[in-house]
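Data availability (excerpt). The following record was deposited with the supplementary files.
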Amino acid sequence: MGNNNEHFKIEDLVAPSGGMKRDMGLFKAIGLMAGLMIGSGIFYVGAFVLDYIQLSTGWALVAWVIAGLFSLCAGLCYAEMGTAMPKSGGSYIYLTAAYGPCLSFTMGWTDFWICQNGSIAALGLGVASYLCPLLGIEGIGVSLVAVAVVVVLSLVNMMGVNEGSTVSTILLVLKLAVIAFIIGAGLFYSGGTGDGVSFAFAGGNFIGAISMAVVAALWAFDGWTSVCMVAEEIKEPQKNIPKAVAISLGGITLLYAVFNLVIMKILPAAQIASADNATFDAVEVMFGKGAAIFLTVGIILSILGSANSAILAYPREYYAMAKDKRFFPIFGKLNKKTGTPINSQIITMIYASIICFFADFQELVNIAVLATWIYYTLSVSAVFVLRKKYPNIERPYKVTGYPVMPALVIIFAIIMLAANFISDPKTVIGLLIPLSGLPAYFIFQWYFKKHPIKDFD
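Predicted structure:
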């Protein structure tokens, strides 16, 4: 896909870039994807969901299920494109093939400057915010610990996709063990003061309330696109990408619903909605205050897993852009020994580390919600465009329920984006970086025309 025509040869779409190693089997692909999704969100997002839905426990659980099904449907749309075009880059590849390089560049530009590197920094700060109080570290030390997290995990992933995905899988198993323990203990705990499952709604705008509750729940599912970013490094991608999507998102939807049901069994809805971290409160009710350290360790492991998966996946997008001669040439270097995009990894590590000193966790989580979901929606719509534009391309997996499923995803995404903007109009700031990508795109076009590069490696 190294040319700038709007229509590509089928060989350009399906052929890998070359040099990357297919070292990631199904189990590790699930470890990457689920490991990125299950971060800190499972422990505190339930409070926002209940708050938006006016403390209706039944509708809160429905919101979690809707968020999971929405993510699953969107993920399966991605799986169709990922199996047909098993190349590194994910959304960048699909948007380029469907709509041309300018739109996909603005997405990659936005991902680099705020969305993805901001997420890595946020996850590093998330780990530090839980770890530093245990170690008595405060002030600038919190940012330094966050940087240490980013650097160590980056170095591990520079060793190879096998090493990076192994760490994600190990951390996923550990965090699932902690979550399973809390669920098991809660199900058998008889002293809960929860309100039970009720579908009562106090009144007002129900559609707006349930929409915002789903938006809140979706924070905990973010990361479902990651497996397609590394499609070029997955063994038998035609089989393993759809399986990884279905198993990860189906399993996590069930996990989140049951976990929140347990918390609601132990604590009243009003207490959950007003708590900084309702999971801490629930564990203290069951085991006493000493159990907080156990839960803190579990949360640290959970966020570490998300951070590692993000560091593994995200540099692949910038590498793909550089290989297509649409980003800084230095990002196009591949380490021939490890098969990893080494320069992209190094620069990502440095930039994410710098961000750790200039923002806090919540700012980084919220800053680019609008822009991210606009590109997710456009990527899902690419399923329609690519079927019409490239009818002869081999599609080992076709999304179930086409065209209804992708259409429903797009409609729901538009509703969700509108609800998010109405609730918080300043999120439109998230569009400024994509707009700045337009002149940047033409600058890169001019640069590569003046300085042609035949081979990055």
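Summary of structural features: The chain has a mean pLDDT of 88.
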